[in-house]
Amino acid sequence: MAMATRTLGFVLPTSLSSQPSFDRRGGGFRVSVIRCSTSPLTFPTSGVVEKPWTSYNARLVLEDGSIWPAKSFGAPGTRIAELVFNTSLTGYQEILTDPSYAGQFVLMTNPQIGNTGVNPDDEESGQCFLTGLVIRNLSISTSNWRCTKTLADYLTERNIMGVYDLDTRAITRRLREDGSLIGVLTTEQSKTDDELLQMSRSWDIVGIDLISDVSCKSPYEWVDKTNPEWDFNTNSRDGKSYKVIAYDFGIKQNILRRLSSYGCQITVVPSTWPASEALKMNPDGILFSNGPGDPSAVPYAVETVKELLGKVPVYGICMGHQLLGQALGGKTFKMKFGHHGGNHPVRNNRTGQVEISAQNHNYAVDPASLPGGVEVTHVNLNDGSCAGLSFPAMNVMSLQYHPEASPGPHDSDNAFREFIELMKRSKQSS
């Protein structure tokens, strides 16, 4: 029976430890013996050996009872929010800093996130407003000339939870079938699954005023334009200046940059700014911005919009569109899972052209509830929902989606030029 020599973790037969090899110098064969230590491999008797991989140290528990083990890469703790999915392939930093995501976990359907890191130029506000980020794969390295830090470091510094290594495809299908779900993210092992499930079922995002927490607290002037390196669509600008009051319901900075690039002098005011004070500033037009949550939960904003209708040209984007719909006498409703992404096709009913748009909303205007004279100018081709309104009698225009393209395509940037034309015509007729 062949003897065996012990090696590190393996058993090496004697027939392999003593192998004949041809000796070119002597013209014959010689035997080479490989000697291995017979001492067993030893490990430290005290202390912890660090694993070269991250363990499953987090959980996502949804109100439907499903539990998704995950790995944490952001801030620790426990958070509760509504879970929505976003189909954008790029632009996760703009999404992280979009105030419209307040009260929500964002699940990215693109499986690889973090490749480009983060940088100070791509932020849409001064902080992150979403509650947590859910992704499939976290990039182990960054590759972008503008990168200043990793996504994990960025989230940790801003106290935002991030988890990865979940089956985001399966979760997305669940959200599409059952609708948006309330969930709990946690890294606390002391909390049981039942406790987390009860937390998810005891909270609701409907009817909560989320705008007050994301709006500015006092008026300020906006002066920054789009960086010339990134500017586009500079045609059809008449070079004249228009004074615009922008109501901040959670406004994205690129909306302000695009308006400024079109020649507007902008004053941003809080969501509670009285209509009478806005009119005293003698604006050429008023913008009602995007923002988070349920438009029915902010009746004070609807009343402000009503008071301004017919007094000055107005332009609503996203939440501003929904508030205009209510102010005009229409109704809004919560969608099954909303629109979140940079690839939504929209038809312009006036021109017949199709725009690929960036969208982020969970509520929509019911076109059947709108009074006569209000025109549905744009329709989402995925589900036929109302994506734009016009009421020429009161110089009103609005879009449910984001024309500022941050992130997203540039197809809808002409909407800013249309707002300029609306203000121009109003000034000429007055």
Automatic annotation (TrEMBL):
The residue ranges of the Carbamoyl-phosphate synthase small subunit N-terminal domain are 56-186
UniProt xrefs under Pfam families: CPSase_sm_chain (PF00988), GATase (PF00117)
Q: What class of enzyme is it?
A: ligase
Q: Note the superkingdom of the native organism.
A: Eukaryota
Q: Which UniProt keywords apply?
A: Amino-acid biosynthesis, Arginine biosynthesis, ATP-binding, Glutamine amidotransferase, Ligase, Nucleotide-binding, Pyrimidine biosynthesis
Q: Which GO terms describe its biological process?
A: 'de novo' pyrimidine nucleobase biosynthetic process; cellular response to phosphate starvation; glutamine metabolic process; L-arginine biosynthetic process; pyrimidine nucleotide biosynthetic process
The record, for Gene3D superfamilies, names: 3.40.50.880, Carbamoyl-phosphate synthase small subunit, N-terminal domain
The family line of this record is: Belongs to the CarA family.
Function description: Small subunit of the arginine-specific carbamoyl phosphate synthase (CPSase). CPSase catalyzes the formation of carbamoyl phosphate from the ammonia moiety of glutamine, carbonate, and phosphate donated by ATP, the first step of the arginine biosynthetic pathway. The small subunit (glutamine amidotransferase) binds and cleaves glutamine to supply the large subunit with the substrate ammonia.
- Protein name (database record): Carbamoyl phosphate synthase small chain, chloroplastic
Q: Which organism is it from?
A: Arabidopsis lyrata subsp. lyrata (Lyre-leaved rock-cress)
Q: What is the lineage of its organism?
A: Eukaryota, Viridiplantae, Streptophyta, Embryophyta, Tracheophyta
